[in-house]
Design brief:
Growth Hormone, Chain: A; transport; ABC1 family beta-lactamase, putative
């Protein structure tokens, strides 16, 4: 086995140090991916953003489906920036590259707080600047822990990739979360969520004809909507702190001596996995 051969070739002390470094890399990747996943939780806060823009521009024709432009642009830019993130990793190393990408992401969130009055400007700040920072961090974070945790690669990879899903809890309105800063009582409109709003699938199907012709309803509580800029500033600060802590825990492992066929094969497998992502 690869893990046994690597462990047998190294003395006890270096093995302990490598395990400690691998665990630190895993924790750092967890914290950073927890912030990167907030980009994919955009759909939970999009209704409030659209309602805020309509509040500032009463004549605006913005609707909920226009929020797709914001999310799609962010996903596309994040994917493109990921290519440059890999090159940035080779040049600066994991910690500095992560700090650079995290700083760009936080700057984008601050810009988003200042451009909520315009859909176009918000698309540039959140869908471009924030997504660039997120894309720069994404591949940089995955490389150190995948190389360090070669023995527990499957477990480590699953933990890291599930972190974006964990960040969905930051924006869930049915429980205390970061969105509670906007809607303290639980609902997106500033009111508590009553148990009666949860209906069965059969009741939903019965109401479909009526719902299909109903007009779109937007959040109208101005007091709640006015807190959105502060929410983005809070996100910028929180993401920057978590990314700084995670970057401090990241480090590239020392290179393995290329005197074993198994180690060469192991490195080729790791490269194949990185290319696949």
């Amino acid at each position: 086995m690869y893990g046994e051969s690597v462990a047998a070739a190294c003395p006890k002390a270096p093995v302990g140090a490598q395990k400690c470094r691998a665990h630190m890399a895993l924790v750092g990747a967890f914290l950073i991916h927890l912030t990167l996943g907030s980009l994919h939780a955009f759909g939970n806060i999009a209704p409030l953003i659209i309602a805020y823009m309509r509040l500032l521009q009463p004549t605006s024709s913005l609707r909920y489906h226009d929020g797709l432009i914001l999310y799609v642009s962010a996903v596309l830019v994040q994917g493109i920036a990921g290519f440059f993130g890999g090159r940035l990793h080779r040049t600066l190393g994991p910690s500095k590259a992560t700090l650079l990408g995290g700083s760009v992401m936080s700057i984008g969130l601050v810009m988003s707080a200042l451009t909520l009055h315009s859909c176009f400007l918000f698309c540039l700040s959140f869908g471009v600047v924030t997504a660039i920072g997120s894309g720069l961090c994404y591949p940089v974070v995955m490389s150190p822990f995948m190389v360090s945790c070669v023995i527990f690669l499957g477990r480590s990879l699953s933990v890291c990739l599930l972190c974006p899903m964990h960040s969905l809890f930051l924006f869930r309105t049915a429980q205390p979360s970061l969105l509670a800063f906007v809607a303290p009582l639980g609902g997106a409109d500033g009111t508590s969520v009553a148990p009666e709003v949860y209906v069965s699938n059969a009741e939903v199907l019965q109401r479909l004809p009526a719902l299909s012709v109903a007009p779109e309803v937007y959040v109208s509580n101005a007091e709640v909507l006015q807190r959105l800029p502060a929410l983005f500033l809070l996100m910028a600060g929180g993401c920057l702190v978590l990314q700084a802590v995670g970057a401090a825990l990241l480090s590239d492992p020392p290179p393995l001596p290329m005197d074993s066929h198994e180690r060469r094969k192991l490195i080729e497998e790791i490269r194949y996995i990185l290319i696949a992502f």
